[in-house]
Amino acid sequence: KSTNPYTYGNWKKRGTKTPPKRFTVFELKVKNYTYPKMRIDPSKITLTSQNHRKYLPLSLQALNEYYYPYVLGYAGNAYRRFEERKDLLQKTLFSGDILFSGQSAEGFVVFPDLHDDVRQITVSIEDIEVRYDAWGTPVETMNLTFKFQRAAQREN
Question: Which pick of 60, 88, 92, 153 has the fewest CB atoms within 10 Å?
Fold first, then answer.
């Protein structure tokens, strides 16, 4: 059985050719070559569809709670897979740590699975901290918006 926390592995619904989607996942890569230090908080990233549905990111805690029902007691193979999924999530989710000048970071930002009728999405990153005062409090922030067209189609 798959321990990939972002997919269903090779499992398919009866009568379909491809596995269903479990989540909507974006890879975020950030390189700081401009500011002395900066920070992107992954909880302030939102995804909005063309019909104004808003999807909020899933935190590490929310994803761990998603997998708790799959643990059949705290021993055996099911628990081992649960622990492996937790480790993979911890290593691969975007952390939101402060990036100093010259540093880079990357990781995944996970959203609930998009509805079938969603074709266009807007990803908004709000309150990117780019300047701080002497006490480390953000004094300047910026917002970024990216638009995407959904090209994937579901197979039955």
Answer: 153
